């Protein structure tokens, strides 16, 4: 059983109201082999919503800031905690998450300046899941599963 980002399963839950459907991930959900979640929606954020990126503050803390300058870190942390609760309750050990997302990104995320540049790093959900022993992949890593 996997936990997957809902947008990869074809749910229109991305910040801009669209999805990033991946046929393989969508089939896992349809076959009952994956549970699809959207951490931002679990946190109560609307769809669509402002584009957000991770910004590292002067104390090296990760902050999730919207393009219009609003700090949404607490909402993103709430979504991460709820996601962890679901994965623990279901006994899931692997997650397939949307790449580059401030929640789900694994390995690379946007630089926090809304420049389109990617930097090494993880979204808040990916980081929390890894700290709790969950194997994390993105839609770009399906050959490794």
Structural description of this entry:
With 145 residues, this protein is of the alpha/beta class. It has one domain. It is built from four helices and eight strands. The strands form three sheets. A four-stranded parallel sheet has the order 2-1-5-8, sandwiched between helices. A two-stranded antiparallel ribbon has the order 3-4. Helix 3 packs across helix 4 (124-131). The N and C termini lie close together (12 Å). The model has no long low-confidence stretch (mean pLDDT 97).
Secondary structure blueprint with pairings:
Layout (H helix, E strand, L loop, with lengths): L1 E4 L17 H8 L3 E4 L1 H4 L9 E5 L5 E5 L6 H18 L3 E4 L10 E3 L7 E3 L3 H8 L3 E4 L7
The helix count comes to 4
Radius of gyration: 14 Å
Cα(first) to Cα(last) distance is: 12 Å
Q: Please give the order of strands in the largest beta sheet.
A: 2-1-5-8
Domains, number: 1
Chain-averaged pLDDT: 97
Q: How do the SSEs run, as a string of H and E?
A: EHEHEEHEEEHE
Parts with pLDDT < 50 across at least 5 consecutive residues? none
The structure class reads alpha/beta
> How does the major sheet shape up?
4 strands, parallel
Secondary structure tally: strands: 8
Please state roughly what percent of the residues sit in beta strands, choosing from under 5%, 5-15%, 15-25%, 25-35%, 35-45% or over 45%.
15-25%
Helix fraction?
A: 25-40%
Pfam families: 2-thiour_desulf
InterPro entries: 2-thiour_desulf
């Amino acid at each position: 059983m996997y936990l997957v980002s809902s947008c990869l399963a074809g749910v229109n839950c991305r910040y801009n109201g669209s999805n990033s459907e991946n046929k393989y991930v969508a089939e896992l959900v349809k076959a009952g082999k994956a549970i699809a979640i959207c951490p931002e929606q679990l946190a109560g954020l609307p769809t669509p919503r402002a584009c957000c990126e991770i910004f590292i503050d002067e104390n090296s803390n990760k902050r999730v800031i919207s393009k219009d300058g609003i700090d949404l870190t607490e909402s993103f942390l709430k979504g991460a905690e709820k996601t962890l609760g679901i994965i623990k309750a279901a006994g899931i050990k692997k997650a397939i998450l949307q790449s580059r997302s401030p929640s789900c990104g694994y390995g690379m995320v946007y630089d926090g300046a809304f420049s389109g540049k990617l930097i090494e790093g993880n979204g808040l959900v990916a980081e929390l899941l890894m700290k709790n022993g969950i194997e994390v992949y993105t839609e770009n890593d399906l050959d490794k599963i």
